[in-house]
Amino acid sequence: MSDVTRNGGRRAARKRADVLAAACAVVAERGADATRFTDVTAATGVGVSTLQYYFGSREDMLIAVFRFAAQSDFDAVTPRLVGIGDAWEKLLVIASHLTGAVGSDAGWRLWVESWRWALRDPELRAEVLGDYTRWHSLLASVITSGVADERFGIDTAPLVVARQALALIDGLALPVALGDPQVTAVVAGDLLADALGRLVLLRPPAR
């Protein structure tokens, strides 16, 4: 493959990623059912014909948006864990990210939209469940580390606790995404820290 072809392919990939990022914002604001090619065109300046070339149908574009958002969400939190040695601090970073305590709630709006579509689309449903598996695995690895370091006192399988932790996160993130004035991102973060500490049987750090 020539450098020209390779560089052209990279530029096209970056352009498509830029369009997907902008489309995520559109879907988060308008909802999937109300998002059309023309809405994404208005946000990006990319013509409808180009969007059709990138994605095919409107439905395929929306599924691509959900995939892109899920991957971006995961990619955003993992680098923040680098350099953190304490498992409890890592757990709080993941929890604050997922509840919207860090950044905007657009990611959660997209999650809700993807859940709705996944109920009707078996292929997307499998991908959403796969995303959950990925988060469960990340949480379980952190919990395993916390048990090994005696920061967590659980004797339950870390994957079981990870599932419980993510259920707590889901339950508190939804009212944040809905704009519940009684469950702001800060309140959700505090409630979640308390609940997670009880769940993992948090212990003081070793001196």
UniProtKB/TrEMBL annotation:
SUPFAM superfamilies membership: Homeodomain-like, Tetracyclin repressor-like, C-terminal domain
Which ranges does the entry annotate as DNA-binding region? Answer: 36-55
Q: Where is the HTH tetR-type domain?
A: 13-73
Q: Which UniProt keywords apply?
A: DNA-binding, Repressor, Transcription, Transcription regulation
For this UniProt entry, the molecular function terms from Gene Ontology, in alphabetical order, are: DNA-binding transcription factor activity; transcription cis-regulatory region binding
Under Gene3D superfamilies, the record lists: Tetracycline Repressor, domain 2
Q: What's a Pfam family in this record?
A: TetR_N
Query: Which InterPro entries does this entry report, sorted A to Z?
Result: BetI_C, Homeodomain-like_sf, HTH-type_TetR-like_transc_reg, HTH_TetR, Tet_transcr_reg_TetR-rel_C_sf
Question: PANTHER family under this entry?
Answer: HTH-TYPE TRANSCRIPTIONAL REGULATOR RUTR, HTH-TYPE TRANSCRIPTIONAL REPRESSOR BDCR
Its name, as the record gives it, is Transcriptional regulator
